[in-house]
Design a protein that fits this description.
This protein is mainly α. The protein has ten helices and three strands, in the order H-H-H-H-H-H-H-H-H-E-E-H-E.
């Protein structure tokens, strides 16, 4: 399954489960199922944006976006994370209110049936996406369905517990199960949307990859530039989504003879070395004998 087919599968499954969840939530009175349906409708809304982004990131740079469409991927990841966090916060508030006011009565027949069907469906979508062609967009959807499967499984277990309590004559305790499940599910799964949002924001802020990744890039660049004499080397990299963007500023000793064809040869070797590990990659390679043109700077003044 290619990336686009995987994203359509994710969007279709989210819409179906979202609408079904809202209908069952109304019939059963369950806040947990309402949360599950709201999550799925959020996934569907962002899935439509994700499909558009998947098309955009395949485009080259142009006059409107001179550095390409690289940052749309972390942008959509950030939106997904923040949207899930918002839904989670509202659900947690509602659960706390319900717990403080005596719990919530739920019609368990339709609730158990939905929770079982949703758990199976979420697991199947998760497995299908894991087997699909991988990309940052698909990876974000895999995280979404991980959260979704956890929620649905937790909701199913909670409803089975509530049914057992009812059969044993503890209706008062059973009323607390639904809001308690909502609170527990939100707290357990909270790390996933937080991680998504932090990762997306870090990319949008042009934060560099892990130091070990940058060190590996620098080692590859030095190897590609051998035997060119180098006074200093600056390798700056960001990874907005699936693309690695890298600037390589090479400071050569004053008086170094470096003709344009030779510089282009070294430039090609550097790009090939980076692409061998970090494709797709966009690399700008600059050679200079003036340190001010290569070193990190906050801008130029008169």
């Amino acid at each position: 399954m290619n990336e686009r087919a995987a994203l359509w599968l994710s969007a279709g499954a989210a819409l179906f489960l979202g609408l079904l969840g809202l209908a069952v939530a109304i019939a059963s009175g369950s806040g947990a199922i309402l949360l599950d349906g709201a999550f799925n409708l959020c996934f569907f809304a962002t899935a439509l944006l994700t499909l558009r982004v998947a098309t955009l990131v395949a485009r080259p740079d142009d006059e409107r976006y001179p550095f390409g469409y690289l940052f749309f991927e972390p942008l959509i990841t950030t939106v997904k994370g923040l949207l899930i966090l918002g839904v989670s916060a509202l659900a947690l508030f509602d659960a706390v209110v319900a717990l403080a006011t005596g719990g919530r009565e739920v019609h368990l027949g339709p609730a158990v049936a939905y929770a079982a069907a949703a758990t199976v469906a979420c697991t199947l979508v998760f497995v299908a996406l894991r087997r699909a062609a991988q990309s940052p967009l698909v990876a974000a959807d895999i995280e979404n369905w991980t959260v979704n499967a956890i929620i649905s499984g937790g909701v199913l277990a909670g409803f089975l517990l509530a049914a057992a309590l009812l059969r044993s004559g503890h209706a008062g305790a059973a009323a607390y199960v639904d809001p308690a499940m909502v609170a527990l599910v939100v707290l357990v799964s909270l790390a996933v949307p937080v991680r998504m949002a932090v990762r997306g924001v870090s990319a949008l802020l042009n934060r560099a990859p892990a130091p070990a990744v940058v060190a590996g890039m620098e080692a590859a660049v030095r190897g590609a530039l051998n035997p060119l004499p180098i006074s200093r080397l600056w390798v700056r990299a960001i990874q907005p989504g699936r693309v690695t963007y890298c600037t390589v500023h090479v400071l050569v000793p004053p008086g170094t003879a470096l003709a344009l064809p030779e510089a282009d040869t070294f430039r090609g070797r550097v790009i090939s070395a980076l692409a061998a590990r970090h494709a797709p990659v966009v690399a700008d390679v600059v050679f200079t004998a003036t340190e001010a043109y290569a070193a990190p700077t906050a801008g130029y003044t008169a």
